Amino acid sequence: MTTKSTKGIWKVISASSMGTMIEWYDFYIFGSLAVVLSTKFFPSDNPTAAFLSTLATFAAGFVVRPFGALFFGRLGDIIGRKYTFMATLLLMGGATFLIGCIPSYETIGFLAPLLVLILRLLQGLALGGEYGGAATYVAEHAPVGERGYWTSWIQTTATVGLFISLMAILATKNVLSPEEFDSWGWRVPFWLSIIMVFVSYLIRKNMDESPVFAKAKKEGKTSANPLKDSFGNKYNLKFVLLALFGATMGQGVIWYTGQFYAMNFMKTVMALDSSQVDELLGIALLLGTPFFIFFGWLSDKIGRKYIMMGGMLLAILLYRPIYKTMYETTLLSNKVEILEKTKTLIELKENRLMTKDSIFTFNKEFTDGTVYHEVKTVPFDKEKSVEVKSTITINSSDKWLLVFMVFIQVLFVAMVYGPIAAFLVEMFPAKIRYTSMSLPYHVGNGIFGGLLPAISTYLVINGKEAGDAEYYLEGLWYPIIIASVCFIIGMIYIDNTNKNKHI
């Protein structure tokens, strides 16, 4: 590549990546604050049900992503890549900002979760149209033989968006008091979105259309009906199904296990301090992000298939040992308590019914530096359930062990996710590429991946209620089974020679 052409593609990468990163930030800020949002938009009398409802609302955004892929993919193949993902950017940013403006459940009742659900669905539709456009746009600017490398920059945006969402939350928590953050400060990361979207819009507004699409349009080779040409054509439909069941389905569950499920697992099952989880997850993501570029580059040299399948196989084999190690790291029964530092505080607190609930606060310290804090609320009304909130703050050694455990999972993600944009783009011809690649990607990630936090959390809770000694590992069966099926199909049917270069 010449210096001029390199400069040109970096401009494309920068504009596309920034917008896509902001969309991922918008999409994932909801998941990053799931524990807090469950107390704001859902009834507080059953915290477990409220958290599951929040995860279900989070998952709803994923479920509609395929519909966004169909709607915006069709537009992208008819009117062009540029204007389509300009529209998705504005839709996503507007929905995210408005989530930060919705009054709480205490203020407007069931209207609160309903409004959140509607805006969450709009987010899903927007993201369904964004990714395919950005990946296609970059790939159609990249030279032959380097598409894996250049499109891998787009692949980093999902993880970087999650990282920035965590950093925005941590920064807001550090600036505000815990009371201020709980009262209104959690809204700030949602409000910040509108500023980032505006900046990205200004940058994208000056971008040129993809040269491949512009050439096809000039020659009259675009599709008049991308949906029919994508899914009504048996030959093309075969590749759509192969992309879904042989690649994106497994990639989706590994992505969400290694990042979102890991976060929810540490916050809910392990009861780690939320800020500490955000910090260690942020470090792991920062360390792991360069490997998306590395595996994208490597896929140009040795092919996409074995890198993606290798990531799936490692995840299948190592998830249970990894999560068992994570869980046992903070297991209090394995630690020595400093009995003289144990403190118990009892107080009475007035509730909404003007009666007084009993609040028991327990603080325990352990010889390795771990601190345990528990607040038990015993309602005056004996028919109501006792509420227990536990928080563990870990020592530096344990924190770095957990960073390493999450980092390993991010490596699995990088292996399956780094090469997949180039893999998908190369499967389909330009006139139906936006539509054809978007649907399997968003079904794999939106349906199979997006449902993972809710399904896995439910399996853990169900296993705990059933008295399973290793209940905390039950949630891993979902990604392990899905990834295993995808691995088998991918190994049998995917061609590693990348002969299907439709660019």
Describe it for me?
The longest helix has 36 residues, at 234-269. With 503 residues, the chain is an alpha+beta fold. It is built from 21 helices and 4 strands.
Summarize the structure.
The chain is an alpha+beta fold. It is 70% helix and 7% strand.
What is the third-level CATH name, the topology of the largest domain? Growth Hormone, Chain: A
The separation of the N and C termini measures: 17 Å
CATH superfamily of the largest domain: MFS general substrate transporter like domains
The appropriate CATH architecture of the largest domain is Up-down Bundle
The number of domains is 2
* H/E topology pattern: HHHHHHHHHHHHHHHHEEEEHHHHH
Number of helices: 21
Low-confidence stretches: none
- Binned, the helix content reads 55-70%
Supply the CATH class of the largest domain: Mainly Alpha
Give Rg in angstroms. 24 Å
Number of strands: 4
Largest sheet strand order:
1-2-3-4
| Main beta sheet strand tally, sense and closure | 4 strands, antiparallel
Quickly give the structural class.
alpha+beta
Characterize the overall form: globular
Q: Work out the strand percent.
A: 5-15%
Mean pLDDT: 83
Main location: membrane
Domain Major facilitator superfamily (MFS) profile: 12-502
Membrane topology: Multi-pass membrane protein
Pfam family, one: Sugar_tr
Any chance you could write out the topology, listing elements then pairs?
Layout: H1 3-32, H2 34-40, H3 47-63, H4 65-78, H5 81-99, H6 105-108, H7 111-139, H8 147-175, H9 178-183, H10 188-205, H11 211-218, H12 226-231, H13 234-269, H14 274-288, H15 290-302, H16 305-329, E1 343-350, E2 356-365, E3 371-378, E4 387-393, H17 396-417, H18 420-425, H19 433-449, H20 452-465, H21 477-493
Antiparallel strand pairs: 1-2, 2-3, 3-4
Helix pairs in contact: 1-5, 1-7, 1-8, 1-10, 2-3, 3-7, 3-19, 3-20, 4-5, 4-7, 4-19, 5-7, 5-10, 7-8, 7-19, 8-14, 8-15, 13-14, 13-16, 13-17, 13-19, 13-20, 13-21, 14-17, 15-17, 16-17, 16-21
